Structures are given as C-alpha cells and as structure tokens.
Amino acid sequence: MERPRRLPLLFPDGNPDPESAVIGPGGVKVLITAAVFAVIAAAIHLYIFVLESLRWTAPATMAVFRISTPQEAAYTQGLAYNQGFYNLFLAVGAMLGVVLLGAGSRVAGLTLMSFAAASMVLAALVLVFSNRRMIRPALIQGGPALVCLAFTLLGA
C-alpha cells in the first residue's frame, strides 16, 4: 500500500503532526503577544458579563449603558442577563485557548483563541452597525480581540 503524499506547503518540515509544525515568521514572541491580548479581551468580556448579568440594575451599571430609569433597567434585565452569558462564554473560550496553548496543544489553543477573538470582533462590528454612536464601546470590546487575532494569524 502506497503512503499518502505529504503536502509541503502544509507540512514544511515533512512532519504531518500539526502540533510539530513550524511556528510562523514571528515566532514564539508573536504567539505570546496574541495570548496576552486574548487574556485582555477575556478580562473585558468577563467584566461585561458581571455588569450585564450580575449588576444590571446597579446605578453605576445603568450609567455605563445609558439606562435612564430603574424601570428601563428592569424591563431589559432579562435580555442583558442572557447577553452577559454570551460574553462569559467568549471569555472562557479565549482563556481556555491560552491555557491549551501554554500546555503545548498549539493547534487546539490557537483554534479556540482565534474563534473567540473573531467572535468578539464580529460582535463589536454588529454593535457599530446597529448604532453608529457605539464606536467607542465597540473599540473597547473588539480592539484587543482584533490585535489577538492578528498576532495569532501571524504566529500560526
């Protein structure tokens, strides 16, 4: 039986194991930078989870989200609670990617980091497209994730 041919572009070192594939042109420093920005993005999304799911009716949170009355906060609390958990899950995905990357599971770690970061960036774009005045919150939400994604792609 003939062995399948290896694709030199996918496996430049001749080893088909993706965990042993050559790290991209930026090297390990690029992947560390990506991981740092993944942690920053995760921390931001964890903070947003706390605001949306745990502190939605607090006056300070209402001010952050420009909610003018307690009635408005009460009316939107269920939606915010649900949305907060989306942010929590994105944060967990990004952090799990960093942990896997640090543990040596490069492919799984980069995949999770990339997926979480791309989801965060896309959510930030949706925020801007839904309300052009939300550019600042979108930059806070999506900026570190975009940097993470860029460095992840450079280092992969």
Automatic annotation (TrEMBL):
Keywords: Membrane, Transmembrane, Transmembrane helix
Signal peptide per UniProt: none
Entry's transmembrane regions: 30-50, 85-103, 110-129
Pfam families the record matches: DUF1304
Keyword Transmembrane helix assigned: yes
Entries under InterPro entries matching the protein: DUF1304
Domain of life of the source: Bacteria
Record's protein name: DUF1304 domain-containing protein
Taxon lineage: Bacteria, Bacillati, Actinomycetota, Actinomycetes, Micrococcales
